[in-house]
Fold these 3 entries.
Entry 1:
Amino acid sequence: MNKFTVVAILVVLALFGGLIAWSSVSNNQNPTDYSQYDSTKLIAGDENNGGIADHVRGASDAKVVVVEYADLQCPGCASAMPNIHKLYEYYGDRVAFVYRNFPIQGHQNARAAAAAAESAGFQGYYWEMVETIYSNRAEWISESGSSRTQVFTDLFKDIAPDGDVDKFKSDMSNPNIEKKVNFDYGIGRDVDNVTATPAFYVNGKAVDVAEADTQDDLRKLIEDGIKEALKAEGLNTEAKVTTE
């Protein structure tokens, strides 16, 4: 290879590298405008969230909406889930309980766990997967690569014995899921100013998690917010959660 050929190759590589860098910059010039979304309401699927709408328990047309931003690797989020489930059982269709992904930086498996839950959601097992991921945190928080995937796959098999395992594993890398996780995170960060998990909002009003010393305290704060919102909407507020 002569000197001219070497120089030509270097020039081509430099131009190609510059094209990649320029393309990256260009794509970042048009980020998602999260301000166009009303975070206090249920968000439908669109091109920005990979076509994956908010995950909701309760009535989608409920006048009271409880939004939780959570990280599946977060121990506080895992501890809060049973009480959130109790609130859902007691308030039923009067309240829409929405769960949004907010993987904290530094939690190495939070995004993978979110992808596993979203993947299970494609087959109708979203809530079951969220709960089993939380309750089996010790099995996956230190894993990586294929070992981590196998743990999530085994958990999926447990909750969905008739589920399509191959589809589940394939969907975990579906680019639409990455869009969904990034979208939820962006809404939380840019619209609701979330900085830590779990974070709760009742009809857009933030629950002051810092006031809760225990999970029962947190449950009561959320329940008080629900009752206040129900009262404002002229709806029945009678529903008391008992601690087992």
Entry 2:
Amino acid sequence: MPENNVPKSTQAKIWQLFILLVLGITWGSSFILMKQGMKGFEPIEVAVIRLVFAFIVIFPFLIPEIKKIPRDKYIWLALAGWVGNGIPAFLFALGISKIDSSLGGIINSTTPIFTLIVGVSFFGLTFKRSALIGVLIGLCGAIYLIASGYNGGGQSNFVYALFPLLGSILYGFSNNIIKFKLKDLKPAVITSGAFTALMPVLLPTFFMLQIPQKAALDDVHFTAFMFCALLGMFGTSLAVLVYNYLIKTSSIIFAASVTYIIPVFAMAWGFLLGEQITIHYFIGLAIIVCGLWIVNRAK
């Protein structure tokens, strides 16, 4: 037992909860950063800038470890990169272009539910039967949000609300890939390897879209570019690195529970920047959180 008389297991749990809070704040802010980036760039460009800057920050972690990665892990790193980062970045950017950032943050809170569904369906994850009730309740909350979202005011749109939902489903696959297929690799290797797998496509795209030239056009474009870069450096690369560490040192359901916290900060930023927060958001969030609570109790 350490000198402060706090058991190591308790210290570890407190540390994990602290990490969860920091991730919630960071990712809760990412939706409004996407909105700010779209003041100068198209959604696809926002996603490209985000991912390229995430790669720039995280790639140095891969250099000393690259020769140690088993070849049979390459395909799983590529899948983790595209399923857990690449495709969702475009889906969320497209969704946020037409819906409120607050709504996007709330829909993202379904990730633990899809993590459980995918884990049970494809990775042999076991769970108590009562967790099924939580999954169904959480899905009902997501369906309610999407069905009522386009009537809720602001910029909400039914079709575009489906994009972040699909992104959350893909996060469910990525969480399980990291936990079950890449468990022998360091979090930094997983994160840097995953983003590196995106670059053969995204680096040429970055220049083909003439993003550097657009960033230099005027103050509006430059400011939007910096918001996207900030999102990539902190809200994507470093946050994903910490998240991967959390997945490896706790349960995937606990790690995915960061989405309890994300909507709180997403809604706060949205409110401060003039988005209309409707009663539907609170009802949908309450239903999803209820479902997540049951899932976590049953795991």
Entry 3:
Amino acid sequence: MAAAERDLASLTAEIVACRRCPRLVEWRERVAAEKVARFRDETYWGRPVPGFGDPAARILLLGLAPAAHGGNRTGRVFTGDASGDFLFAALHRAGLASSPVSRRADDGLTLHDTYIAAAVRCAPPANKPTPDERDRCAPFLHRELALLPRIRVIVALGAFGWDASLRAMAALDHASPKPAPTFGHLAEAAVGPYVLLGSYHPSQQNVYTGRLTRPMFDAVIVRARGLAAVDPLRP
């Protein structure tokens, strides 16, 4: 295992063991114990969810937090819920994922030149972490980004991911231009060695209401691939 992969593995272990936010610890563990009817026979992960993907990635996708019955259940970000179905299908169409479906952490899915993480690693009540919880978790992203030296494009999935990305880049001494770039779908901002690219979050609400459509999301992923100069996987 290369040094960078060892460092990522060490960070992953630290993330998984984190108990810094009492409210989030109580919530994620209660959800894992109570479950929902459709997953009553499954063992929930119920811990912080680390990043996942190619250690040599040039594209980083950053979401808000794991879903209570998605990543908090499966232990892998964007896995086992409708948002993940939408996201991984788009990555597969763009040649960045080996499968269009992500159901379990051990399902064999791999990412090509792509890494996925969440700004907050624990599932929060109502999907709304507090500012203190956001700030306690932020150093994990800062360190993760530093351990992914080939990243060139950060795709912010929603305004929360956009702001978290700007904070992470600033923590690595890459201050954003003034005035600060504004989030929007397909918005772009050059910050240090990175291009920050915005997308509406692939949440069920955004997809079901048509705020985010398949062609809109495909446009973001293809743009990210082009900016990062990534050749897609071939069948």
